[in-house]
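Recap for those who missed Tuesday's class. We walked through two folding examples back to back. For each one, the amino acid string is listed first and its predicted structure tokens come directly after. Nothing is annotated here on purpose, so try labeling regions yourself before you check the end of the notes.
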Amino acid sequence: MPIKINNQISLEFKLLLLCLEDNLYGSKEDEIIKACSKKIDWNKFQRLAIRHKVIQLIYVILKNKYAAYIPESFLKEMKTIFLLNSTHNLYFTAVIHKIIEYFNEDNIECVPLKGPVLSEQIYGDISLRVFSDLDILVPEENAFQAFNLLISKGFTPEFNLNEKQFEAYMNSEDHMILTLGKKKLIIELHWELSDRYLSKPFTFEQIKHQLCEYDFNGKKFLTFSREDLLVYLCLHGSKHIWENLELIYLIANLLKSDLDWEKSLLLARTTYCYKKLLLGLSLCSQFFNCNLPDKIHSLITAEPEIKKLDQYVTSLLLTPVENHIWDISKSKFTKYQFASLDRFQDKIRYFFFMALFPTNNDWATASIPGKYSFLYYFTRPFRLSYNLLKQKTRLIRKGFK
């Protein structure tokens, strides 16, 4: 564990990191046993594991290797959480299988993202991730077809849009949310993966020639190559300002594979998310001691903004659970997002895109016919200003400036 982190963290956070690093490489057994012998606040430890979305992994690690050093009552409570989440994951797995079947029958290419599929790919077990929705990527030209197909199969869209309205919606949004059943299982239908604010969108077209066939529970489907998955995970983590450790830990596990670094670097550069890739790798080294090639270390060091971004993310992740608020990082309109863009022209584009282009919240505020959808561009600045003022007021009241 890097010394600069070790000196800043609580005993509970240190134990969490030790368990995860031990799961990656082994060799942390003595340190974990020693930490468990100290005055661990097990309730706080559990809250940390939940907050960082590693509760499933932590339970399996502790149960399999360190049960003798853990309070029995704590392990029982963890087991209950684990079993409930595993049942949830099995249900989501069945749903994603059905969606892939629907798309295959309608000749729509697709790539399932995150959820149980990523859990199987990275951890080898669908039960080891915590997630609340399913994501699937389709080609842009098939997005409306896929949207209508899901509706015909009983899914309820966030907005009922005709083809013209859907085309207008696609100009400013990268996905559509649909729900299923009384439990409101959420599906995110993606046609783009970078929130539309990169000048070179990350789409199905970008990665289709590198897609691999993957066997998931006895059924074959398309998935990212390891190199493209690395870029996507860094892009996704950056989109959410690395708000939990699992976003970094997924990448750390992927780094154990043999990677063609030039392919990942090429994709990151051509889609202008090069800094996001380097930041994700820097965070892996920072939190989990990942052994990066000398060339990658040199590239990280050569980008002065990476260190500042790394420090900002670290400060968020190390904020105590009791004091932690995500109001700062929930908004896409942040200094972090601005600083993480590769080029000056992208920063300018990002500013205007966020200020003027309507979002799904703008669509939710009012339904405008497709041919008049340009009106959203006039209402967006007023709604954004109001929301930023409201957010700033809330932060000041809570002691943040």
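Example two. Treat it independently of the first, because the proteins are unrelated.
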Amino acid sequence: MTTPLFQFQPTDSEGPVFKAPWEAQAFSLVVALHEQGAFSWDEWAAQLSAEIKQAQLDGDPDLGDTYYTHWLHALEQLLVKKQVTSEPEVVARVDKWRRAYLATPHGQPIELNNAS
């Protein structure tokens, strides 16, 4: 019997440690893609470790506030490496998200169709 991946969700004594909804979404996306067979958990762990190591070499002070940024970058790189998506598609999606974010009033959900 395999261990459910959701049990590895980061928590503290008060519950999930996500500081923002996007962190929880990024976490969930990795779990869902793994469960669908896009990559193994060992591949994911190696990619995340490499991302964090590179960030530290680049001067990240590792204060804990960039962990999910590394998580997201590792996911992008792994999906490109596994040919689930391409680098230009990742760049285009990030740009589209940024434009939607800038066009969305504070407090409203960000929707990609708001990108102008």
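Answers for example two:
Residues 52 and 58 are 10 Å apart (CA to CA).
The beta strands are 11-12, 15-16.
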